[in-house]
Amino acid sequence: MGKNNSIKINCLRLYRKKNGLSQKRAANFLGVKTASPLSHYEKGDKVPGLRNALKLEIILHTPVAFLFRELYGELKKEIQARREKITITK
After folding, report:
1. How many domains does the chain have?
2. How far is 31 from 59, CA to CA, in rounded Å?
């Protein structure tokens, strides 16, 4: 997935802090050797794949849709627009 402004806005850091986890500890739970990948996710430089997104949901006790609220909202609007378009053309 390429860079997208909506990806920049996520709640990973917020929920990590709420759970009292350092980047290093959360990265360890994620199964990566350094905190670098998690840092990239938190800054929005990269988007985790499905496997890591689900791991983050488990680690942070927060649904993926909440962790990536802006992206979720964008995707929801996109799908709703397509549904409306299909309904109109029927």
Report:
1. 1
2. 11
